[in-house]
Task: structure prediction
Amino acid sequence: MIKFKPIAHRLVPTRARFKSLLAIASLATMAAALPAAAAEHAPLTGPQVDGPTAVARARVAADVLMATYDPVKAWFPSSWWNSAVALQTIGDYMQRTGDRRYLGQLDNTFEKDKGAFPAGVLSGDPLLGNFTSRAIDDSEWWALTWLQAYDLTKDPKYLAMAVTIANYVNGYWDTGTCGGGVWWDGERTYKNAITNGLWIRLTAELHNRIPGDTLWLGRSKTAWTWFQGSGMVNADGLVNDGLTNACTNNGQTVWSYNQGLAMGGGLELYRATGDAQILAAVKRLADAAIGPDALATNGILTESCDAADQTCDDNGKQFKGIFTRYWTDLVDTTHDPRYATFLDHQAQSVWANDRDAAGRLGTRWSGATDNDHPNVFDWRTQASALSALIGDVPAATPLESLAATLSPAQPVIMPSASGTTKIPVDLGVSATGFLPVLALASVDVPSGWNATPRANLLALQPHGISAPVSGKLPLNVTVPGKAADGHHMVTVYLKAAGLRFTTQADVLVAHAIDFDTGTVDENPWLFDAGGSQSNGVQNRFADGHAHFTYRFPFPADTSAAHVTLTIDAEFLVQVSQDNAHWTTVLQESQPVTDGSNKADRTIDLTPYLGAAADGSKPVYLKVSDAFPDDGWGGRVYHVTANILQ
Result:
């Protein structure tokens, strides 16, 4: 029998296209009527906090994170377990948004890093193969990463790897000490919350993915029961770090990731069993976490090392993101509006207070910073805060989204004594959906500045959500010679039918170069971080084959310039006019690993001042490692310059 589809079903695409055409016509009319002066443009009040906007925000932040992924070593630089968590976060992003562009990077890591490696290559510990090592919790993180990859691809190799790792970890479950629990390390010195929270989650995830399993379910239930009775959950419902040798709560710091994994393990086991008592225990942990004097300050998740007079180490930088990953699971499972409101509050604070113009997200989600303990931005903090943005994406994936970025996002202008300076800026736009998108981009610049074009229509043809389509619009921003020193915002408002997004470039106007490394003052000058690292104020280093490059856009009327670096260790310093052809100007000739050669070294940049272009004479300065095989590359503390005009 032949069956006909109801005619209403056939009309839906036609109606949608008709609405899109009406919207396009409306936008074209708006563009034609838009005044030339930015001051006459009425800016949007801000991005809508809706599903499409949440997807767009997460996409911008995820792209920033993946720009730091090293495809050769197949990880994020210089951190093994943190790389697992960052990749799992990217898996969360892909699962939540439908974007599948980064599946290749997951597989690249799986294939390249599953072997054995000596200490110092990917981890401070020797890697034993199959992502295992003496660090039992590190092994568990990788198992969860591959389960995430399995969920995304259904490729059985990922599930098989997770089982292999779990079998290895199970060898460290020991009832002979404290009645049970997994040891934290191969030497069996410590039983702690994170290792056992991970174990509960891992075993329950395996059960929920292996048809007919009873083995992993039994292990998960046993581990949950042991954990609940271990004493690590204190009288306030908060999870301390671990147990003493006498098997009592050691009273150590309540880290957010310990609380998060306790909840996450319980949630996965609840899905496996349907046991309401497990869910009730998870809710008690959640309520304790956001209770008085717990893990939130003024409603924002705050690690103890987020205090204004402290700095989180590379481990602590990712703790809040792990908590938020499992808090998102809590929201999806319970649909409790209290939990959903808390999650949304984190995402909004990250986006509004903890984000720079380049889309980088910092360690303090409140955005708090000071000169001695600045808010730190790196790939670890990016992965962590990205989890909050992912959690704000509705579980039912929005099918349309529109995002934008400006590049460069933090340009520096050093004005001449007279004349203007021009900045070429590219507006990048990306979209998902199933219908054509026509977006109106309008530019707002400070008074006395100019931008061309001031408004433009961009047409995009997305083909679903798995691979956002992108386009680019070149802009030119003209800065007057009398522009005041300081930060000035160039804002682009993007609007399409039912979609909108705002992006900015933070233009620094400066007549002098004088900054500490490892601070926000360094960021505009840092043209290419190149895999370098910074562990706080006056500390940026590049070892192995990493480097970092500064761009100094000297004024067009500069006749001579010198730069002084406070530098030590095994440095190699090179200079270029075009960021392509390099001349070595400083090089340490001896291996130095103790900072004993720290000194101010002045470099004459006058020979490298080329002809002025767009109102400046840019010089690039790159610092790298003179002895790349021993891991002690150049470290810069402070940069200053002397300019003659």
About this structure: DSSP finds 13 helices and 23 strands in the chain. The radius of gyration is 27 Å.
